[in-house]
Amino acid sequence: MTSLAERASKTGQFLWSGWSGLAGLSVFAAFWQVAHEAYGSFILPSPLETLAAARALLGEASAWQLLLTTSSRALSGFALAGVIGTMAGCLAGFHPAILRLVQPQITLMLGVPPIAWIVLLMIWFGTGSATVTTTAAVACLPIVFLGAAEGIASRDRLLDDMALSLGMGRVGRFVRITAPQMLNRLFPILVMALGTAFKAAVMAELLANAGGIGEALAVSRSNLDVANALAWILLSVSALLAVEYGLIQPTRSELEAWRHAARPWGVKR
């Protein structure tokens, strides 16, 4: 019964924290409205016009299919980069020699523009879903790798030594001591990587004419339909926020319950 009450309280706090996000979006919408009044609807449609266009798109079954296609590609690339990047980052974090060896390759991957990866992947894989998914994965991989590696490398080794002296095994020390410290650095990186995955996926679809939101944006560009283009961007960002606050942030809240207990008002006496 207590666990249900604690979970309900945590859910309520999470939902209440959304007010700050809504306030930030309201400020952004206000500046958007000011720019609209300065330049007119042809250059920058108003927020209400964009919402109306987005509502019209959501009334079409094909729009839902395009949104689902882009989201699945972006999430597949993000998941692939998350698994490989986290595992490789943990290995490099425990072995500084590997981290020094891999660091130039990571810098190289970060320095290559996404459009260059798209061109290469179009040559290798064609213009289908494989190109879009791989582009998202390649764009996210170095970010996730660095987050996991830095999280492991900067861990408090004294805590690990203390657990070892108490007889805790290697797996137990990793799960209870090392992993929480790594996740503290990794989760913000995962949020950044998720946004990168969506941006890379839409860009790849646009350039490769591979369907999804990217192709819809290309059609809006050819028709000079700014309101429709902004509506697609709004839907893409909405899908991104839905994944972040529907999956990543709740998962972080569950795995980092110790952070709440560490606060002065959260200590159980």
UniProtKB/TrEMBL annotation:
GO terms for biological process: transmembrane transport. Keywords: Cell membrane, Membrane, Transmembrane, Transmembrane helix, Transport. It is found in: Cell membrane. It comes from Aliirhizobium cellulosilyticum. It is a multi-pass membrane protein. InterPro entries: MetI-like, MetI-like_sf. Belongs to the binding-protein-dependent transport system permease family. GO terms for cellular component: plasma membrane. The lineage of its organism: Bacteria, Pseudomonadati, Pseudomonadota, Alphaproteobacteria, Hyphomicrobiales. This is NitT/TauT family transport system permease protein. PANTHER family: ALIPHATIC SULFONATES TRANSPORT PERMEASE PROTEIN SSUC-RELATED, ALKANE SULFONATE ABC TRANSPORTER-RELATED, MEMBRANE SUBUNIT. The keyword Cell membrane applies. Signal peptide: none annotated.
